[in-house]
Design goal:
seven-stranded mixed sheet, 2 domains, 23% strand, Rossmann fold, 20% helix, six-stranded mixed sheet, alpha/beta, 362 residues
């Protein structure tokens, strides 16, 4: 499959976001528009104020939980609709519940906008794919629009089972010493992925309200999670008796907050791809750092691009310059779009690493 550079681009950059001129709709726009196709419900990709939303059926519940009663059309993975002569379908991205790649076909050309994605378990064929969302599926296309959150060769994730075993062992050790284990993780996606891999026999699992609200939506979508306890955030609340042997899941914003006092003596940890860098944990004075990301690592990015068979690649956000340079050296037509997409992983640490590239990215 080759890129059709002579044809009009199916996706262009507008002040509102990524725009499909042929279909007159936007993908994950950051300004209010009439028609928005949403790849997933993280705040930088799904914003309020749009007239109409199109999203994967499994992600509509989270979309409503985060944005309220918006006008949203649900589409099954692989289902094709035609709008203004443009064929649109959504395909699993493996990022979080309901995350999707957007396939656009018009005039004999096919583009895929991937949003955010992870390939863990799929690329290795290890069977360790995230059980809380549909696994990433490669989609053939002429042009592949990709993220590059961890677009440096230093980022190579350990096996998911290995990281979850480390978390359980840390929790069990703390429980034996009657200390709570406070684990900071992004409330949507990361927290539920961790929950699915915990051993409830170790002790009770307590969740911050931000995490428990999303847990409820996941359960309503049929995702199996262990039993969790939710404690309301109240000023002057007493310590929680169960905390001595508990694992407490909380969003990064809870770090250092009065809310943590109720758990008495505790050990704290962070689950994020940024934890692969030693300095990230040290800057936050954490006891433990667990390398677990809901984004593709460097090998995962290259694998996804290769699997798409695209000869043209557009990088939307993250550490884009090294990836663009590597792809060009590999003979692909590559460029970057300056978007307003952020990174929920970067919000998990006080200071995300600078997007600097090594002298060689081979």
């Amino acid at each position: 499959m080759s890129a059709r550079r002579s044809d009009p681009d199916l996706v262009v950059l507008r002040p509102q976001g990524l725009y499909c001129p042929a279909g007159d709709f936007f993908i994950d726009p950051w300004r209010a528009v009439e028609r928005a196709v949403i790849t997933h419900a993280h705040a930088d990709h799904a914003r309020g104020g749009h007239g109409h939303y199109l999203a994967a059926r499994s992600g509509v519940g989270v979309l409503h939980a985060r944005l309220g009663p918006v006008s949203a059309q649900a589409l099954e993975y692989g289902e094709v609709i035609t709008h203004s002569g443009v064929k649109v379908s959504l395909h699993p991205a493996g990022h979080v519940l309901g995350s999707a790649q957007v396939r656009i076909e018009h005039g004999g050309s096919v583009w895929v906008v991937s949003g955010d994605y992870k390939t863990a378990g799929v690329r290795e064929g290890s069977g360790e794919a995230d059980p809380t969302c549909a696994a990433f599926e490669p989609v053939f296309c002429d042009v592949f629009v990709t993220e590059s959150t961890f677009g440096l060769p230093i980022y190579r994730w350990p096996a998911q089972a290995e990281v979850l075993a480390e978390i359980n062992a840390w929790w069990a050790g703390n429980a034996q010493n009657r200390r709570a284990s406070v684990l900071f993780a992004y409330s949507f996606g990361k927290a539920q992925r961790i929950l699915a891999g915990l051993d409830p026999a170790i002790g009770p699992i307590l969740c911050h309200g931000a995490v428990e609200n999303i847990n409820r939506t996941y359960r309503q979508a049929g995702v199996i999670l262990p039993h969790t306890l939710h404690y309301e955030e109240q000023r002057g609340a007493r310590e929680v008796p169960e905390a001595a042997q508990a694992l407490v899941l909380a969003p990064p914003s809870a770090q250092g907050s009065p809310w943590l006092r109720r758990f008495g003596s505790y050990s704290d940890g962070f689950a994020s791809g940024w934890m692969q860098l030693r300095g990230a944990r040290r800057r936050q004075a954490l006891d433990r750092g667990f390398v677990l990301s809901d984004h593709a690592d460097w090998p995962g990015l290259l694998w996804a691009i290769e699997q798409s068979q695209a000869q043209r690649v557009i990088v939307t956000h993250g550490q884009s310059a090294p990836l663009v340079r590597w792809l060009r050296e590999a003979g692909l037509a590559a460029q970057a779009f300056e978007t307003e997409f952020g990174d929920e992983e970067a919000a998990e640490v006080v200071e995300a690493p600078a997007a600097t590239a090594p002298t060689s990215v081979g």
